[in-house]
């Protein structure tokens, strides 16, 4: 049974995706990664990010020493693959808007990987929601307010959970503190996949 939580103004759909749906998504994402291999991007400060990234859609978020921005092609110049229809269906189910996403970011967390507090603010119009899908190992999700110094709270996300940042929470600071490595059997070698859908333009 799906349980919807209002967490710090952020909508969390617990167990929205059952095991069969999760396995189907993993198969589709493996095909996506064949067309757009994972990359380990650098931050503007020159540090390697602990997560590996790829994506799909017309524009995909990237990071390098020049800054953060959306790119309409992979680093090798090849166009990004299309966003799988199953992911678009999830957006339609939870986003609450008719506008489809044009960007899909796929993050892979291995043991020890994390994502520091940040907010999604590189989009042309930040009124559109952000939809985040968890697959694989449990992850400790932290979310706060519009100022980095505001208090934060944490919730554990499991495989099949979907988070929606919308309304007052759309520009909230959030991040992943850690994962429980091999807490899920979805991915044979362990780890967590996070799929984020956005309207970038």
Question: Which descriptors would you attach to this protein?
Answer:
single chain, 201 residues, mainly beta, seven-stranded antiparallel β-sheet, four-stranded antiparallel β-sheet, 2 helices, 13 strands, 35% strand
H and E order: EEHEEEHEEEEEEEE
Q: In terms of per-residue confidence, which ranges show pLDDT below 50 for 5 or more consecutive residues?
A: none
Multimeric organization: single chain
The largest β sheet comes out as:
7 strands, antiparallel
* Helicity range: 10-25%
Rg, rounded, reads: 16 Å
Proportion of β residues?
35-45%
N- and C-termini, Cα separation? 35 Å
What is the 3D form? globular
Number of distinct helices: 2
Number of DSSP E strands = 13
- Helix/strand structural class: mainly beta
> Strands of the largest sheet, in order across it?
1-2-11-8-13-6-3
Residue-averaged pLDDT: 96
Describe the 3D structure.
- By secondary structure, the protein is mainly beta.
- It has 2 helices and 13 strands; from the N terminus they run E-E-H-E-E-E-H-E-E-E-E-E-E-E-E.
- The strands form 3 sheets. It has a 7-stranded antiparallel β-sheet, covered by helices on one side. It has a 4-stranded antiparallel β-sheet with strand order 7-12-9-10, with no helix packed on it.
- The mean pLDDT is 96.
Short description:
By secondary structure, the protein is mainly β.
Show the helix and strand layout.
Elements: E1 3-7, E2 10-14, H1 19-35, E3 52-57, E4 60-64, E5 67-71, H2 85-94, E6 103-109, E7 115-118, E8 130-136, E9 139-143, E10 153-157, E11 162-165, E12 174-179, E13 192-198
Antiparallel strand pairs: 1-2, 2-11, 3-6, 4-5, 6-13, 7-12, 8-11, 8-13, 9-10, 9-12
């Amino acid at each position: 049974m799906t349980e919807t939580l209002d967490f710090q103004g952020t909508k969390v759909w617990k167990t929205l995706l059952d095991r069969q749906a999760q396995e189907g998504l993993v198969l589709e994402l493996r095909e996506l990664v064949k067309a757009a291999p994972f990359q380990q991007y650098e931050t503007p400060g020159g540090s390697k990010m602990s997560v590996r990234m790829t994506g799909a859609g017309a524009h995909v978020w990237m990071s390098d020493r020049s800054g953060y921005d959306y790119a309409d092609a992979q680093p090798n110049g090849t166009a990004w693959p299309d966003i799988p229809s199953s992911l678009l269906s999830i957006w339609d189910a939870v986003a609450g808007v008719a506008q489809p996403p044009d960007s899909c970011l796929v993050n892979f967390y291995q043991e020890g990987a994390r994502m520091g507090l940040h907010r999604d603010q590189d989009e042309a119009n930040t009124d559109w929601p952000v939809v985040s899908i968890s697959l694989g190992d449990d992850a400790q999700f932290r979310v706060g307010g519009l100022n980095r110094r505001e208090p934060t709270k944490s919730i554990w996300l499991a495989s099949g959970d979907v988070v929606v940042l919308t309304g007052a929470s759309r520009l909230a600071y959030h991040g992943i503190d850690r994962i429980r490595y091999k807490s899920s059997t979805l991915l044979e070698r362990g780890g967590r996949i996070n799929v984020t859908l956005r309207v970038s333009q």
